[in-house]
Amino acid sequence: MGEPTRRAVLTATAVGALGLAAARTANAAGPAVAGPDIHPTTEWNARPATGPIVVENHKPTYIVVHHTVDPGNNTDYSLAHALQISRDIQNLHMDTRGWIDTGQQFTNSRGGYVTEGRHRSLEILRGGRQHVQGANVGNHNSECLGIENEGLYTSVDVPAALWNSLVGLIAYIAGQYGITPDFIKGHRDFNSTECCGQVLYNRLPELRKAVGGVLGVAVSRADAPEWPLLKPGDTGPKVRTAQTFLRAAGFGVPADGVFGPSTKDAVATLAAAHGLSRDSCTAARAADESGFLGSDVWPLLVPSGRSAAAWRTELGS
Questions:
Q1: What is the three-class DSSP state of 283?
Q2: Of 286, 255, 289, 250, whose CA–CA distance to 270 is shortest?
Q3: How far is CA 270 from CA 274, 279, 299, 305, in A?
Q4: 8 Å CB contact between 44 and 121
Q5: Rounded-to-integer distance, Cα 59 and Cα 49, Å
Q6: In degrees rounded to 5, what are phi and psi of residue 213?
Q7: Is 47 left (phi over 0), alpha (psi -120 to 50) or beta?
Q8: What's the whole-model pTM score?
Q9: How far apart are alpha carbons 148 and 90 in whole angstroms?
Q10: Which of 45, 124, 152, 193 is at a distance of 20 to 30 A from 252, taking alpha carbons?
Q11: How far is Cα 83 from Cα 33, in angstroms, rounded to an integer?
Q12: With a cut of 50, which residues of the chain have pLDDT below it?
């Protein structure tokens, strides 16, 4: 996804803006959300960043949930392990991806330990007025604050300790910035990626409600439809719809409802032509995601006669 990405912040919807204002009012009137125990970069002996840390002079719009993939679903729930995976992720992001530092702002271990990721993330979060730009959501890093959750959650659930610490961390972040729970997203809501894993992604409505409960605010769109994620090997009417749109765009793919090699190649070609990031944010990659069709590709395909929200509702149902 590149380091750094600086695309302009998306315009918030009227509903979102009203929701944010309501959250700020509610949070100002109610009790403050206690900050969780976050272990800073100094505690896990982070390497210095190789470039300047960019501090955005505005609050983030979204809180984004990721999974790390590696080191997998480890059974070492100790603090020492949590500090080690923070070092491992930073090494991979800096040495392999060529980024200036860890990509995400915070990391959450399977044992429920939260560490600071990119330098200054904790300091700036505590101020509640700005946020550190990370490198965890392609083309949206100026508006997103990312949390990596240790593990691979494509087919298994998260440990209770990780879930509880995730709820507490997000509630604190949302309280600091006045972000309503409706703006808690998964990485796949921005890029065509498996992240944050199907199982964890399916629990995002539950996560929004849990955070809303901590904040004492209503969650109006916990189950709002998003663009579906289609992958090679998928079959069915949504694949056929995508193929129909690809054919209208000039790609010679069959409209058979089977996401085969030609459909994958067409999606990858379309994404590359529009400069879409194909890098996963995670500490390692579970699979080649170059042909995935998700939230950043659908808007390039759907006919312009309807709004994006209408298409998301139809395709996401």
A1: coil
A2: 250
A3: 6, 16, 11, 21
A4: no
A5: 22
A6: -65, -40
A7: beta
A8: 0.89
A9: 12
A10: 193
A11: 25
A12: 1-31
